[in-house]
Model the fold of this input.
Amino acid sequence: MKSSTKKSNLVEVPFTEQMVSSAQAKAKNLGKINNSILKGKGNFAGYLGEEIVANYIQAEIISNNEGEEKYNHDLIKGKKKIEVKSKRRTVPPRDHYDASVAETSAHQKPDIYIFTSIQFEGNKPVRAWVCGQKDAKEYFEQARFYAKGDIDPSNGWKVSTDCHNLPYKDLDPVGH
Done:
């Protein structure tokens, strides 16, 4: 049996009450958004994911700026356009869990996707992880497509919207 020496991409990261407050305010202002898998209920986790990643890699958040670019990516670092995809969880993520990009978000034009998982107890975030990144073009080349209603054979999950999934273990580590 071949042993793997690949280190996990999952990095637990701290977040502050200020990040939580900022994310809550943005989510409240946004309300229900088009193309949302959770029909707007994930806005808070999404904004908190942006706050966490921006702090972790020292990037600028642009998702609430004026103009059209905010619909194509969330952060800017140097010349790189970064889209953050976050998942709410009740348990810590594991390497075989999937990163997901909904088909309805495939129009976005980031250079890089960065994925986060945020563990909640009720409505309170308690822990967070940066789970990896992938060049946008490579992501779609490597990800599996699932149609709404499909059953993901890796975990038995009934897919709630058309999406492209890639296990966290197949992502690249996120550099600072």
